[in-house]
Amino acid sequence: xxxxxxxxxxxxxxxxxxxxxxxxxxxxxxxxxxxxxxxxxxxxxxxxxxxxxxxxxxxxxxxxxxxxxxxxxxxxxxxxxxxxxxxxxxxxxxxxxxxxxxxxxxxxxxxxxxxxxxxxxxxxxxxxxxxxxxxxxxxxxxxxxxxxxxxxxxxxxxxxxxxxxxxxxxxxxxxxxxxxxxxxxxxxxxxxxxxxxxxxxxxxxxxxxxxxxxxxxxxxxxxxxxxxxxxxxxxxxxxxxxxxxxxxxxxxxxxxxxxxxxxxxxxxxxxxxxxxxxxxxxxxxxxxxxxxxxxxxxxxxxxxxxxxxxxxxxxxxxxxxxxxxxxxxxxxxxxxxxxxxxxxxxxxxxxxxxxxxxxxxxxxxxxxxxxxxxxxxxxxxxxxxxxxxxxxxxxxxxxxxxxxxxxxxxxxxxxxxxxxxxxxxxxxxxxxxxxxxxxxxxxxxxxxxxxxxxxxxxxxxxxxxxxxxxxxxxxxxxxxxxxxxxxxxxxxxxxxxxxxxxxxxxxxxxxxxxxxxxxxxxxxxxxxxxxxxxxxxxxxxxxxxxxxxxxxxxxxxxxxxxxxxxxxxxxxxxxxxxxxxxxxxxxxxxxxxxxxxxxxxxxxxxxxxxxxxxxxxxxxxxxxxxxxxxxxxxxxxxxxxxxxxxxxxxxxxxxxxxxxxxxxxxxxxxxxxxxxxxxxxxxxxxxxxxxxxxxxxxxxxxxxxxxxxxxxxxxxxxxxxxxxxxxxxxxxxxxxxxxxxxxxxxxxxxxxxxxxxxxxxxxxxxxxxxxxxxxxxxxxxxxxxxxxxxxxxxxxxxxxxxxxxxxxxxxxxxxxxxxxxxxxxxxxxxxxxxxxxxxxxxxxxxxxxxxxxxxxxxxxxxxxxxxxxxxxxxxxxxxxxxxxxxxxxxxxxxxxxxxxxxxxxxxxxxxxxxxxxxxxxxxxxxxxxxxx
Length: 932
Hints:
There is one protein chain. It contains 27 helices and 30 strands. The strands form 5 sheets. A 10-stranded mixed sheet has the order 3-4-5-12-13-14-15-23-24-26, covered by helices on one side. The protein is globular and about 80 Å long.
């Protein structure tokens, strides 16, 4: 008989954040009691008695990894209800969250022997006494999935290529079916019709569909092109994808008939919990491209923002005149700042997207004429409510923000500087925190495949970040500019444009979504239509006038219609017969058109390569601003029918083998290599890694533990405190501070700085920061001092325009910043470099690449000091409740909670928040001891 749960009254279920209305009311006991039996049947897995035969493994038990919250991202309806009612967790749903969180306080005493207290053993295979289950999916004899007891990670071993990939698909569906389904609908702009009309769902589909408004024919064409242009590897990729899909669909069939499918299907109205009526749509190959378009938009599409750049340039020219205004704009843009920390630090130069001496083809808008292109039309029902448009647009601006903007770090040290003589690497992607996680762990062993690591759910036919038999690789988002804006001149009406002299109709692409309330989402019924107008130069994003002529601004991305192409590079990375050293690694990642920094380590070598299809621009075209849509200013050899062009050759991409060390935290790659994002100046979060790793290398004898400690120490650092606060205090202390309130604040800040300037608990689990008052003061002070320092000189209009290009601040608690609240990733985007350069200039210290003028106090040290003291006093007087106003998770004034990391729910299972760390979500620690 099913286990009985005593109940006296219905339980009101809590609503997880980021899934509005999820399970708002339900009689938990009645539902759980009737569902425990199918749960126990559907999830049972027999333990195996034999050890999985491991592939060749040259890591010598020195490879580790971690991916919170846990491997299991599927939950039955019963498990969801138990979690909502009592907080219980399905097996392996959060068993990696604790070790991950504990590193924040545990890293100070870390040794090589204790690394796996905080990480998983990432060796190949599973010891016999650690096997939790062995499954031959769908009864196949050519593949086995073994899961380990500690984490439940699938170890997939196939004797045929088809069986191997079938197993990978089956295991992925076991762990992430609901999430995969969510994101194939996100990629098609159909999430609200699938999961409900909540504002966050609207925002998610709007954000991604705007960037990749593909038709089903577009998705299929990507597959056909990838196969046709890549020979035998293209054919193999297609066969792998089809086998992978067969595995996914086999699990859908099995879980449906066995009634252990994810419970979200019931809660969103797709399945009936009593009769099992309803269907879970089988996956098809175009779903993989839809998923890939989401991942590409999140992590691998650097560039854009040309229209915003034009607006701020015009504001600068209006304020100062054309010549001086341009100088001011360029000084804030910092597109090739000599003080910027760089991944390649041996002086190598890789010119790309540099400022042309004589710009050609500029299509700057007339002042005040720019209007954003609407996306949503024909709202009905709840979508037409007075607040609906604002709510969905706000959600679109911040949807998956932590994943979209804060991406990844890497620390790699050559064997010349390590204790063992072998390279050491600590690296991983900073993909945000979600439940279930966007990534999943797996080991895949089969003909032509041998790897363990992380892959995006639904795209895990290959390991995308991880390790092979004797090498490991990882990536950080690079952000070089592969997106350009064009001004197409309108003709006839607002939906025709001049294309190479011919008045041409824009293509209208629409997606209509209709939703109704469900148990998961009580948003009332509604509908809307998303509409994008596509041109040969890409989708329309804005409208304006240029010299009085009506234009539409479009955005052209080199990876548009080509997200599927990168599959070949990932296939190569998994192939032990292809990757045999740093050169073949670089060759593999050259086939990836996403904008990434790739890092490599084996027992003898390290390497780096910057990937992406970098278009060759016409002479004189400035990548920072919109250009006229005319043949003279198009990408060289551009074919609009296929969106292909001439791309810069691999030798012109930043690349290196065996540099003494590499660091990356989304900072500048190399000298003269202009990145698309603002803020690559003298102070960048990459400095936090550079300072620590350089010190380790100079001392020599670097170990895995030492490199992890450097990463973990940087993960707790407040960049403003470490790199800017000393100079701010130098100005303030240039004469005696007589004001008692200001003196007290200075004393607190100085004491915190002396202690290291970290945002860390007093003791593990205390949920209280050491030097909490100093942290509160700096959090309150920074936006005040930036505005007081720069707005008087820039003027309100130009200051506002520059803050649109680059937010002022991004502390962990900032709900307003690019990453949103509780997202972990912090200090990537802010004005710390501007403040640093300006304050040093006012102090009379040397500044390379200075701002065009001095701003603090108009350049007067005493006036600057007065400004800083006045804003510091104001900040010190603000209460914790004012600085940390509270949200649905945290009470006002709770500083630790405001900073804390939350696994944002994309399904029915919730997890507790953890103390803030600024580190990769999935992370590897590797040191190979031998090589093939």
